Amino acid sequence: MSKRIFSGIQPTHHLHLGNYLGAVRNWVKLQADFECIFCVVDLHALTVPQDPAALLKATREVAATYIAAGIDPEKNILFNQSAVPTHATLGWLLGCLTPLGWLNRMTQFKEKAGKQRDNAGLGLYSYPVLMAADILLYHATHVPVGEDQKQHLELARDIAGAFNRQFGEEFFPLPEPQIFGAATRVMSLRDGSKKMSKSDESDYSRLNVTDDADTIALKIKKAKTDIHPMPESVEGLDGRPEAANLLNIYAALSDKPLAEVIGAYAGKEFSVFKRDLSDLTVAVMGPMSERLNQLMADPAELDRILARGAERAQEIATPVLNKTYDLMGL
Ligand code: ADP
Ligand code: NA
Fold first, then answer.
1. Mutate to test the pocket of ligand 1, among 148, 178, 190, 191 (most ligand atoms within 8 A of CB)
2. CA 19 – ligand 2 centroid, Å
3. What integer pLDDT is reported at residue 9 of this predicted model?
4. Which atom of ligand 1 is least distant from the CA of 7?
5. Opening angle at CA 20, ends 278 and 120, nearest 5
6. The pLDDT of residue 146
7. pLDDT at site 116
8. Among 81, 118, 122, 194, whose CB has the most other CB atoms within 10 angstroms?
9. For residue 145, what pLDDT is reported?
10. Which one, of 16, 57, 5, 63, lies nearest residue 209 by Cα?
11. What is the pLDDT of residue 149?
12. Which ranges of 39-149 would DSSP assign to H, the alpha helix?
């Protein structure tokens, strides 16, 4: 059986350096060895309130970011989730097989719903079932997942197993996590104990793929550090999460080992390192944001790319849904 990847990101806010280094950059590498389906998961975005115009724009922008980062929409399938209604249909079928107890264990729902559990939407609660449908609909064999999605992928495997036992042995392959050698976890520029996130209220906490060179330089200049000079060794990063984060970003963007970067700046002033980090970030992200702007200037072309991707996705999804119907007696 051929190896097939499914992955997606929600179209909420701009993508940031964490999304790039932790996800999209790795997807670019996967294109060579896998059949890849990259989705803009707009149905998932609806699990929290969205402004319709902003959602539509963000959907195009995430698609444009994928392409600007180097994902080829001809070689791979690139589309937005709502354009293939089969996702929601399979989500319903799988939801009927999913015990509430499994969903009650999901830590992300507990975090996102907080104390307002009764006010959280049903969609936020059943989100992992829709995510299982996204993956199983294409008989995806591998899913690149960050730490935060591991539990949801486990659930997708459990749901596939439950379906197979009840309706047909091995109809849905159990998707495997696709792990990357050095998974980069990018932390907030304002607080080294929090990950860089789309939902952080401070825009200074993250480097967006849409930021221009001046904005990048300003955000890095303002990034939190401490009073000590640059560390002399990897051990010297203990208890210095902000320094560790900036050095890790440098290492990831330059494709150099962390120890080598630390060696190059040992004992120097932070301001010197920060200036170099700005230049490096601009060198990597600048061409990407330029390409992103070009793509966003032609929304009709982006819509055509997404529509063509949706057609190709639907060609795979329809027979899988039909077979699922047959197996379930529909
Ligand atoms: P979504 O809500 O669409 O999943 P996220 O921003 O939470 O959006 O994550 C999208 C992808 O980017 C996931 O694969 C996630 O692991 C990765 N990601 C998000 N934030 C970071 C970060 N700070 N560092 C590394 N990877 C990240
Ligand atoms: Na997430």
1. 148
2. 10
3. 97
4. 14
5. 120
6. 79
7. 84
8. 81
9. 84
10. 16
11. 86
12. 42-45, 52-69, 86-95, 100-104, 107-113, 122-136
pLDDT given at position 182: 61
Tokens matching residue 70:
């180097």
Q: Which residues contact 3 (CB under 8 A, 6 or more apart)?
A: 33, 34, 35, 141, 142
CA 224–ligand 1 middle distance (angstroms) = 21
Distance in Å, CA 147 to ligand 2 centroid = 9
Residues with CB under 6 A from ligand 1: 9-10, 18-19, 21-23, 146, 148, 184-186, 195-198
Number of H helices, E strands in the chain: 14, 5
State which residues of the chain have pLDDT below 50: none
Res 181: pLDDT: 61
Q: Tell how far CA 218 is from the center of its chain.
A: 25
Burial of 65 (0-12, 13-18, 19+ CB in 10 A): buried
Closest listed residue to residue 126, CA positions, set 108, 144, 138, 146: 108
Binding residues for ATP: 10-12, 18-19, 146-148, 186, 195-199
Helix crossing, 270-296 with 213-222: angle to 10°? 150
| Cα–ligand 2 centroid distance for 21 (angstroms) | 14
Residues 6+ apart with CB under 8 A from 223: 189, 190, 242, 246, 274
Distance in angstroms (rounded) separating the CA atoms of residues 131 and 151: 11
pLDDT of residue 135: 98
Domains of the chain with CATH codes: 4-179+299-328 (3.40.50.620), 203-293 (1.10.240.10)
For residue 208, the model assigns a pLDDT of 97
Pocket test for ligand 1, best of 7, 14, 17, 19 (most atoms within 8 A of CB): 19
pLDDT at 183: 61
